[in-house]
Amino acid sequence: MGSGSRRNVADLVRASARRDPDHRALVAGAPGATAELAGVLTWAELDARVDAVARGLTHRDLCPGDRIAIRMTNTLSFPVAYFAILRAGLVVVPVNPAYTAREMAHLVTDSGARLVLSARELAPPVGLDDFPIDVEVLYDLPSDDRPPETELDSVGGNEDLAVLMYTSGTTGLPKGAMLPHRALLANLDQCAALEPAPMTSADVVLLALPLFHIYGLNAALGMIARTGATGVLMERFDVDASLALMAEHRVTNVPGAPPMYVAWLARGEREQLARGFAGVRLATSGAAPLPVDALESMRREFGVQVYEGYGLTETAPVLTSNLVTKRIKAGSIGQPIPEVELRLLDEGDPLAEVLDPDDPFDDPAEEGTGEILVRGRNVFLGYWPDASGGPDAQGWFPTGDVAYRDVDGDLHLVDRRRDLILVSGFNVYPREVELVLAGHPQIEEAAVLGIENPVTGEGVRAIVVLSRAGALSEDEVLAHAATQLARFKCPTSVEFVDELPHSVTGKVSKARLRELGFADLRPESA
Length: 526
What we know:
This protein is an alpha/beta fold. The chain has helices at residues 11-19, 43-58, 77-87, 101-111, 181-192, 214-227, 239-249, 258-267, 270-276, 292-302, 430-438, 474-482, 510-515, and strands at residues 24-28, 39-42, 67-71, 91-94, 115-118, 136-138, 161-167, 175-180, 204-207, 230-233, 253-256, 282-285, 306-311, 318-321, 335-336, 341-345, 370-375, 397-405, 411-416, 421-423, 426-428, 443-453, 457-466, 493-496.
């Protein structure tokens, strides 16, 4: 497969290197960072390194389409490895460095990875003796540094598989979402079509989002490569270190997730925060809902407007954003970005679109809700290995998320369809219950699961984390819920825990709660 007119994600690096070879591409290093983790690469230097590692990979008896796993934090090695794998016509399988050996073994085995590129500074995954990784692991990037007579052409592109990104479902083992070059590039084009552009070559971008997650990998790193901006890498997010880096490098663009903003506000000094955000022209948040008080505090105290968006691993990832209308509204995920089609479908009739967006309604959890279906060039092929579960014949992909449109046409997520609880035939959306519970001053966080009930079919169980000064009983939690929720929506049992499990982007992991047995404890009685 020659490069020809085929678009390969790695070509973005080549294009930026040709436009402005001496412009800084990546800056790495934080207080206390070792020499191996620090440094600066211009676009020309990054392009040359990508070529060298791509050549090194081709010398290892690998064929186009072979899968290569990356187990690294946000260091200079990750972007080099990522773009080199793609340039060589291979497929990237990102691995969370915090995964245990059992979790990592599943990804490596299921994907059929031929090789693992791992950071030398990382400790071996926990439980390696019980779950060995039966594939070669390299701790140094393979590299052919001989001066080439010509630049290395990218192999493959377009519909060829680029990234196999594993995503956890509500139950079962993670599935590999098959993202071709076309989907990754299309989503960058779609985001770039927003006006004004969310990123330009003049931007200095904080790269604190983990690159093994699709948000950090494509919406952040991919957009940096597309625009020729400068990325400031953070190996791991830290409040003080991030604010120091932002001030030192005059960061102008912050792709973030809710836990970052919450941590900055909770633990950062106000003067330190003001210095860090002094040059920021655009701050965004995704992957989970941003708490209203954090959204308001960023605006009120620091004059920073945080634009929220929504997306999925399967859509590479961005689908909607408040940047479309420039209208920031608490709880809203905005409207579809250019060239993304979105429909809300009635759960009872898969062919009927729900309430007209111009018609107001009082209770969005009762009427006007529907599952989000999307269509666009950014949608994945399906799940590995047979592309099952992908878009239908007309290109529509059901996200599993339930939402409603308000009178302005802005979207609001209600809940995951697969997390829906059916109580006596009535829909209960866990997110609505969770928001009510979290509104109690003594409750820090809450998660809601469905539990079997012999009379109502399902009941509502709340798993609650109390604040440090909290001392609520189960009856008090139930009484609070009853003041704001219809009876069928109210929890009928409460479990108190010290903390809830979260994903790397801040979402409460319902799958992990089920694994821990919270949906099985004390089944609801009649």
